[in-house]
Design goal:
The protein is an alpha+beta fold. It has helices spanning 8-15, 68-80, 94-102, 113-122, 151-164, 167-173, and strands at residues 4-5, 19-26, 36-37, 39-44, 59-62, 86-90, 108-112, 129-134, 138-139, 143-146, 177-179. The protein has 2 domains: 4-32 and 139-191, no CATH class; 39-135, D-Maltodextrin-Binding Protein, domain 2. The strands form 3 sheets. The protein has a 5-stranded mixed β-sheet. Strands 1-10-2-11 form a 4-stranded antiparallel β-sheet, with helices on one face. The protein has a two-stranded antiparallel sheet with strand order 3-9. The model has no long low-confidence stretch (mean pLDDT 95).
Length: 193
């Protein structure tokens, strides 16, 4: 595997000792340091929910139990707020979680902010949803390579390739830069407030 991308949770829980960390794209998300992202809690636009505390006991759609942005991050954030969410509508994908809220099968879902930005941009149902809370920023989805490859060479190639993309294509990707993260950036402590 020359280059792949994984979620932060599997990287820190399973893959960290098996792969090399290359870095992470920077999506230029408001309120996040370069190379970081956060999750957004969404509800239907016509919902009476005003903030995260109103979601106590709510039916929550989630993509997968191995997801930082759809499961672990929102769970830790809600716990810090002193509320319990009922993660009981497994969907398999962030878009499917948003659809579950839109269709009324769930009262809320947490999506990574990059996916939310793309849904707002491309999906007709997105205006029927709104954000009620955001988790704290955490390191972005890591780009990884097999142990036999030199991560710094792949990082340099990624940076060079990104620099050669025209502005319109970069905008379509939503990538504004690249950050050479270190494995310790993905320690469990980095994912807590």
């Amino acid at each position: 595997m020359v280059l792949s991308q994984t979620c932060g949770y599997p990287y820190r829980s399973v893959l960290r000792e098996k792969v090399n960390l290359v870095g992470t794209p920077d999506y230029g998300l408001e309120g996040c340091p370069a190379g970081y992202y956060h999750s957004v809690f969404i509800v239907r636009a016509d919902s009476q929910v005003k903030d995260i505390r109103d979601l106590a006991g709510a039916r929550m759609a989630y993509n997968d139990t191995h997801s930082q942005s759809g499961f672990h991050g929102p769970h830790a954030f809600a716990e810090e707020q002193g509320i319990e969410l009922l993660f009981n509508v497994e969907t398999g994908a962030h878009r499917a979680s948003a659809l579950a809220v839109y269709e009324g099968r769930a009262q809320t879902a947490a999506l990574d902010a990059v996916t939310w930005r793309n849904l707002v941009r491309f999906e007709e149902f997105a205006p029927t949803l709104r954000v009620v809370a955001r988790t704290w920023p955490v390191p972005g989805l890591p780009l990884i390579c097999a142990r036999r490859f030199e991560a710094s060479i792949i990082a340099e190639a990624f940076e060079n390739g990104l620099a050669q993309l025209d502005a319109e294509f970069k905008q379509d990707l939503g990538i504004v830069g690249f950050v050479r993260m270190q494995p310790e950036d993905y320690s469990s402590a980095a994912f807590l407030p």
